[in-house]
Amino acid sequence: xxxEPAGPxxxxxxxxxxxxxxxxxxxxxxxxxxxxxxxxxxxAIGTLVLTDALTMDVDIAQRxxxxxxxxxxxxxxxLLLVAVLLAVDVLRGGRGEAESGEDVDLDEPADWRTVLxxxxxxxxxxxxxxxxxFPIAGALLFWGSAYxxxxxxxxxxxxxxxxxxxxxxxxxxxLLGVPLPGGPLMGVI
Length: 189
Description:
55% of the residues lie in helices and 0% in strands. By secondary structure, it is mainly alpha-helical.
């Protein structure tokens, strides 16, 4: 006849260990509901868009029932609606899923070289667009971005960048009527 060892303090029943605290109870409430930050951001942007749309002077541009206020009103209202729906979902326990990209290793550190190169290229394009015009600054932007992202075709990339920049310039300046600075090439193009 075998006897099982007695539990604590000599009790004969099964022993129970205290349940370990779960990870969700030890984290703070704000960390568990961090998606609410996105809700606040969407709410602020939606409010800004609606405020701008409602204070827009449209007497001259109004040509019918759909005017320049229509799209900002729809977008601002949609942003507010999404902010409220997302907040309700988060408060009911909904959580965004972690990134599960196939080729993304989340344990690897960020590639700061690429980030800094891209930032420098965008900053340079913003500074140079005034004196050089969009065709040249845009070509530098397209070529620099391709280089920063790893393309090493030094013979092909500048040509593609120049063609993209010129096509973008003509599309916006001539077809869409959005004037872009031409710079020194204004009389040539």
